Amino acid sequence: MTINNEVESAVGTAHPLDPLSRAEISRAVAILKEGPAAAESFRFGSVELREPGKAELRAGAAVAREADAVLIDRASGAAFEAVVDLDGGLVSSWTQLAKGVQPPFMLDEFDECEVNCKKDPRVIEALAKRGLTDLDLVCFEPWSVGWFGEDAQGRRLMRALVFVRDEPDDSPYAHPIENLVVIYDLSSGQVARIEDNEAIPVPAARGNYLPKYVGEARTDLKPISITQPEGASFTVTGNHVRWADWSFRVGFTPREGLVLHQLKFRDQGVDRPVINRASLAEMVVPYGDPAPVQAKKNAFDSGEYNIGNMANSLTLGCDCTGEIKYFDGITTDSLGNPLTIENAICMHEEDDSILWKHFDFREGTAETRRNRKLVISFIATVANYEYAFYWHLFLDGSIEFLVKATGILSTAGQHPDQKSPYGQTLNNDGLYGPIHQHIFNVRMDFEVDGVNNSVYEVDTVIPEHNPTFTAFKAVDRLLETEQAAIRKADTSKHRFWKIVNHAKKNIVDEPVAYRLIPDNAITLAADDRAHVSQRAQFARNNLWVTPYTRDERFPAGEYPNQSTGGDGLPAWTQADRNIVDQDLVVWYTFGMHHVVRLEDWPVMPRQNIGFMLEPHGFFNQNPTLNLPTETTTTDTGHCSTGK
Ligand code: ABN
Ligand code: CU
Fold it and tell me: Does residue 602 have a cis bond before it (omega within 30 degrees)?
């Protein structure tokens, strides 16, 4: 069921953190077109809310509605950043970006690449050489070119990998045309060159998963119905959500997709802030196979493609089930028209097994309380893969960020009698899945019980004085500056990190805190000298901490597309700023090290990748003792046999 009963606060009056409406996007675009972007040749990469400054917002002052826009002039290839004052109706800032800076791709650039690749005589000839003449069945998949030491000479490039289908519904990823790559120049609208190396046979075996290929579905699974006869337990007012003790605002940007703002937990009647803003800030998928086509696959799906733009419209009963509240994602097409991704964000509650239990064996009584979580999610399709991103809020104040990676492997072709050591051979027909990583970075502007926070690394150590040999203890170490806070996880030390507020003490006079449990704490597997290691330096360490600075938004920099590296976290942290008792941003790198397995083919069962944030002395005790004992699913109607 879809919930649609929210009461809009003062219709037409947006909260300062509400994403731009369609009308606001159109207004911003009109203002730009009347001003510096008058020429037909301008394209709109993104038009989004320019979030108000934190100080103004905190002061409760009236804040102007402003738009941040990124534009490309196709005539000159130049890129621009603009700030539009929506109330004043003027362009308050217009900046040309340095030559070579390439904003993320726009959705219609994908189509353009495919259409024009198919028209190019060199491409047609290379395909014909491989016996492929039906261009309708050929797919050009527009990967970013990255940077491998060559000067792109200001051109905006795409690197199209080529696949072929047997028929329109056939999965192209079963049939990679290995050793054929088309470099497409978006600046000129022409194929720049093709890389046509040894034509090895295109794997012919199919890899289909559609019912029409798979055959009859099993019939032994009985229905599971999720019913909430009294409705969901959240209340939604515009983009503001209250659920159990949690409250927050939902945001959406083209670059990040779902954003959580002003996440707070109500404790004894007081809404205590935990995180001011949280989002997926970047991701990179580097491939470890040195084969010519594979070695250049390392997409930054957020920063190069704007992962929010690739959000799916979610379907009830398929993507999310239960009592659902959807939020739309509003973005722009390249001509500046507002584009609504309906139902881009889904929110619902899920039962989460037990939260706590104790059986008093002396008395023979048991107390059990059920857990539940609020799930706020979106799913993006980045060509072959799907990434489903979930924020889970739990009743006890813990928070999970979970990525479910699914979709289809990005495959490669080899001679059928060979087995590449750099991947998993998937069939006996020349198809393999190269080894790769999916590395994510989440940016969390923490506000643990107030603006000024500090971070400790907590390692468990064996003390020097250890006569019983049994001793071990957790030791806190304050991370004082940005450089000191560039850290890796260490399971041998049972390491975690604690974000504390020194000014707020709990019952035992210790600073209140949240801890970050470094699950799935992978880092880049490639050599530090690899170009991708330079471009994705955020992925070389798991933890980074910076003092909040308005423009420091993305860990590989504002524009990773074709970047040569060094932007973002590595540049900012050079200043080695103080991070003690400051307004802090914590950046956590984690991911999936994907050694491909046969079971990942032809469509990958979801792989769960995520991490937890848990209150750590934020409360004085378990905050969930007041949970009801009632349940509808036992004979007695409750989970308490206590007196
Ligand atoms: N995963 C890289 C990618 C994303 C979008 C389109 C093509 C390729
Ligand atoms: Cu993978």
Answer: yes
The pTM of this model reads 0.97
326, 385, 422, 588: which is the annotated catalytic residue?
385
DSSP letter at 510 equals: -
What are the tens digits of pLDDT across the range 447-468?
A: 999 999 999 999 999 999 999 9
Residues linked to residue 407 through DSSP beta bridges, in sequence order:
385, 604
Residues 410, 415, 418: CA angle, nearest 5 degrees = 95
Report residue 7's pLDDT band, with 50, 70 and 90 as the boundaries.
very low
Distance 598 CA to ligand 2 centre (A): 12
Cα separation, 209 vs 588, in Å, equals 35
Asked if the domains at 11-96 and 107-214 fall in one CATH topology, the answer is: yes
Query: Mean pLDDT across the stretch 148-157?
Result: 95
Instruction: Say how many Å lie between the CA of residue 463 and the centre of ligand 1.
Output: 50
Our mutation pick for probing the ligand 1 site, out of 108, 144, 309, 312, counting the most ligand atoms within 8 A of Cβ, is 144
Ligand 1 center to residue 323 CA distance, Å? 33
- Which residues on adjacent β-strands are paired with residue 365? 360
Half-sphere exposure (Cβ direction) of 476: Cα atoms closer than 13 Å:
13
| pLDDT value at 11 more than 60 | no
141 Cβ closer than 6 Å to some ligand 1 atom = yes
Q: Which CATH class is domain 241-341+373-452+521-615?
A: mainly beta
Ligand 1 contact, 518 CB (< 6 A): no
Annotated catalytic, 456? Answer: no
The CATH number of domain 107-214, selected from 3.10.450.40, 3.20.20.150, 2.102.10.10, 1.10.20.10: 3.10.450.40
Alpha helix stretches (DSSP H) within 486-559: 531-535
| Angle, alpha carbons 580-275-441 (nearest 5°) | 85
Question: Mutate which of 110, 141, 173, 184 to test ligand 1's pocket (most atoms within 8 Å of Cβ)?
Answer: 141
SS3 content of the chain, % helix, strand, coil (to 5): 10, 40, 45
Beta strands in 383-526 (DSSP E): 385-394, 399-407, 412-413, 423-425, 431-434, 436-446, 452-461, 473-479, 496-505, 511-517
Query: For 224, what's the count of Cα atoms within 13 Å in the CB-facing half-sphere?
Result: 5
Segment 349-381, tens digit of pLDDT: 999 999 999 999 999 999 999 999 999 999 999
CA 301 – ligand 1 centroid, Å: 7
Is 305 touching ligand 1 by the criterion CB < 6 Å? yes
Cα 566 to middle of ligand 1, angstroms: 23
**95 sits in which H/E element:** strand 90-96
Phi first, then psi, for residue 154 (nearest 5°) are 75, 0
- Are the C-beta atoms of residues 145 and 160 closer than 8 Å to each other? no
Q: What is the CATH class of 11-96?
A: alpha beta
Q: Quick one: tokens of 226?
A: 């999720």
Q: Is 385 one of the catalytic residues?
A: yes
Report angle CA 38, 41, 44 to the nearest 5 degrees. Answer: 80
Catalytic residue among 68, 301, 429, 600: 301
Assigned token pair, 42: 């301008």
- Residue 286, ligand 1, Cβ within 6 A: no
Residue ranges of the domains in the chain? 11-96, 107-214, 241-341+373-452+521-615
Are 134 and 550 in contact, with CB atoms under 8 Å apart? no
For residue 285, which atom of ligand 1 is closest to its CA? 1
- Strand spans (E) along 314-384: 325-332, 338-360, 365-382
